[in-house]
Amino acid sequence: MKNSKFVLIVLMSSALLFNACKSNSTAPQTTNGTGSTYFPNSNGTYYKYSVVKTDSTGAQASGTRSTTYNGTTTLGSTTYQNEIDTITFGNFSTTSTSLFVKNNNGVYFAIDTSGLSETIPDSLKQYIQMDAQLTAFQFPFQDGVSWPAFSMSLKLGTLTFNLVKVMAYYQGVEQIPLNLSTGTVTKSAAKIQYILTLSVPNLSNPFAAPTTSNFTAYAWLVDNVGVAQMQGNGTILDAFTGGGIHFADTTSTVTQSLISYNIK
Questions:
Q1: Is 262 exposed, middle or buried (0-12, 13-18, 19+ CB in 10 A)?
Q2: 80: containing domain
Q3: Quick count: other Cβ atoms within 10 Å of Cβ 14?
Q4: With contact defined as beta carbons under 8 Å apart, do 224 and 36 qualify?
Q5: How many CA atoms lie within 13 A of 141 on its CB side?
Q6: What is the rounded CA–CA span in Å between residue 63 and residue 91?
Q7: How far from 227 is each of 13, 81, 171, 173, 194, CA to CA, in Å?
Q8: Exposed site from 58, 64, 101, 213, fewest CB < 10 Å?
Q9: Residue 143's CB: how many other CB atoms inside 10 A?
Q10: What is the C-alpha separation between 92 and 42, in angstroms, rounded?
Q11: Distances from the Cα of 4 to the Cα of 1, 198, 202, angstroms
Q12: Is the separation of the CB atoms in 242 and 215 below 8 Å?
């Protein structure tokens, strides 16, 4: 297989895996909706964010993202909450549904693997190994804490190629302004850093170092409010906000800032 074809397969499969939606895998069960108050998840809770996206040419697009939690979906033995995201730029809007579970240990998004058969040849699909869920947040937030958010690898015989890896790092508390529709307030926020590493192995020389690309983004969470701000590489942030993950422009940056909310 030519390296360019392999790269395409990696990118297409990654896009599917990070588009958090339906899944047949088993995620951690919720415990009566309990967990950190940094992620309120009661049914009917609503958030609205301003969104600014800058592409590789420096061109900016401004819009909004509306998020609400509405109902549940049961897949297998797992009951997920529905997160419905609507992202609007000008007159164009897209709506998507993500499925997540929250418990005392963290927040886990289901991974959609249903499209793998359409994008990865059967001869390769059987060698793909991946995590069953995306660990967005791990509780409690403590100094020095990090966690593997997601990984995908290709195993061929005795060789294992790490294709996609996302690590999350708690970076302490920062004071951030919330430019709400009711006025500007300053809040203490837990800061999380995400680093996505995409590795493309050299199949002509499996023992050579792979070609790697790193992408970084941040999220700020306010106690009893939730996710108040996200900023950084669009490739990562789209995955957390219902837009899937795309590698067409890995230099794009996104800022999402909370402008209104209603916690139920």
A1: exposed
A2: 3-262
A3: 23
A4: no
A5: 23
A6: 10
A7: 27, 17, 15, 13, 14
A8: 58
A9: 8
A10: 29
A11: 8, 15, 11
A12: no
Distances (CA, A) of 90 to 61, 82, 149, 241: 9, 26, 33, 18
Cα 105 to Cα 148: distance, rounded to the nearest angstrom: 14
Which tokens sit at 140? Answer: 């409690």
- Among candidate residues 163, 161, 164, 160, the one with its CA nearest the CA of residue 149: 164
How many other CB atoms are found less than 10 A from the CB of residue 220?
Answer: 23
Q: Which amino acid is at 144?
A: G
Q: DSSP H helical segments within the chain, as ranges?
A: 3-18, 116-119, 122-125, 234-240
The tokens describing 14, both together, are: 């990654």
Q: How many CB atoms lie within 10 A of CB 179?
A: 12
pLDDT in tens, 22-61: 333 344 444 333 347 999 999 999 999 999 998 878 889 9
Half-sphere exposure of 33 (CA within 13 A, CB side): 11
The reported pLDDT for the residue numbered 15 is 38
Helix (H, G, I), strand (E, B) or coil at 210: coil
Look up residue 243 and give its amino acid: G
Q: What is the mean pLDDT of the chain?
A: 80
Neighbour-count burial of 188, counting CB atoms closer than 10 A to its CB (0-12 exposed, 13-18 middle, 19+ buried): exposed
More confident residue, 246 or 228: 228
- Total domain count, the chain: 1
Q: Which two tokens stand for residue 243?
A: 């837009």
